[in-house]
Amino acid sequence: MIRILILLLCLAANFSPAAAQNAIVDAKYSGKPGARIDGTSRFATIGQALASIPIENTRPFIVHIKDGRYNEKLRVDRAGVHFVGESRDGTVITHNDCGDTPAPGGGTYGTQGSFTLQISAPDFSAENLTIENSFDYEANAAKPDDDPTKAQNPQAVAVMTTRGSERAAFCNCTIKGYQDTLFADAGRHYFHGCRILGHVDFIFGAGQAVFESCDLISRDRREKNPTGFVAAPSTLIAHPYGFLFIACRLLKETPALPAGSVRLGRPWHPGADQRAEGSAIFIRCYMDDHIGPEGYAPISARDSTGQRIWFEVKADSRFFEFGSHGPGAIKSSKRPTLDEKQIAWYTVAHVLNDWLPACPSR
After folding, report:
1. Which terminus of the chain has fewer CB atoms gathered within 10 Å of its CB, N or C?
2. Is residue 332 part of a domain?
3. pLDDT tens column, 211-259
């Protein structure tokens, strides 16, 4: 099985399988970092394994991660890195920074620095594991507004792609957080069989991404209406494609999440950038009753002068559905649809420009 997996990953990354390298990360390991046991380097942390990869890496580097909780803030800046967990629920990469967490160099992290895992190199993949931002949004929200320990910027990213990332694939993974869980901001992405949890704009960014057979799970934001927004793409007008959701399930984490309280998306314009015209297309997706007839919502941003600008849905975004089904598949003038002819343009091959990784679970 491992040899087959290595072959598939190498083919996806256009590397030679004979050149693949391997490491095993085990939270229980207490030996010297990088010591070779049975021909494979061993590490106690994922960060140690990443540090052992050459900066100008030209070979696939497959990191087998044993079950355990790895409290690490990780940056993948080497090409061809592949994380393979022992089990999706047992192998957990976790960290708890938020937008207001003090940064080592002064100031605060902000949204972009709050990540648990940041990817800035091509041909990354992750399979069979969980990546979470464990910042306790609910406990923070329960604090009085005059509590000096209350974070006013609770954005907390679990996974982020940034400049340099390209062809990032996630297979059978859980990506977990509350506000701003998945920041797919650079390059092409493919998600298959994944579970993504959050509430406010929990899938957002300017990248091109296909989500196939994934569960998009909305968490409750109590006493707020709307309780959340699934997607907040900031796709540039120059790009014909943003986020494509195919045969996904839009679910709610608990039955208590009110019916009609979640919007499918809103058009994010970072820094009020007028070049953004977010695209999110939902094709043949199941929608539970937390998705309502309003469908989408406007969003505001401040420009370089500090002026707040509101961006409406129809004028400033590309949001469409086709073949939605389930209690939340409500026909409404506020939820534009595509026809059979139009959806021919929205395929995996078109969005990913004919790149498609070989997810073993696909």
Report:
1. N
2. yes
3. 999 999 999 998 898 999 999 999 999 999 999 999 999 999 999 999 9
> Is 180 among the catalytic positions?
yes
Angle formed at CA 155 by CA 71 and CA 120, multiple of 5 degrees: 65
Spatial contact of 283 and 333, defined as CB atoms under 8 Å apart: no
CATH number at residue 133: 2.160.20.10
The strand order across the sheet containing 21-25 reads 36-37, 40-43, 21-25, 61-65, 81-85, 125-127, 168-171, 188-192, 208-212, 243-246, 278-283, 317-322
| Active-site entry in 97, 100, 180, 185 | 180
- With respect to residue 15, please indicate whether it lies within any of the assigned structural domains: no
> 254: exposed, middle or buried (C-beta count within 10 Å: 0-12, 13-18, 19+)?
exposed
For strands 299-302 and 308-311, give the pairing: antiparallel
Q: Is 201 considered catalytic here?
A: yes
pTM score > 0.70 for this model? yes
Range of the domain at 305: 57-351
- In this structure, is residue 33 part of a structural domain? no
Q: Please indicate, yes or no, if residue 35 is contained in any of the structural domains.
A: no
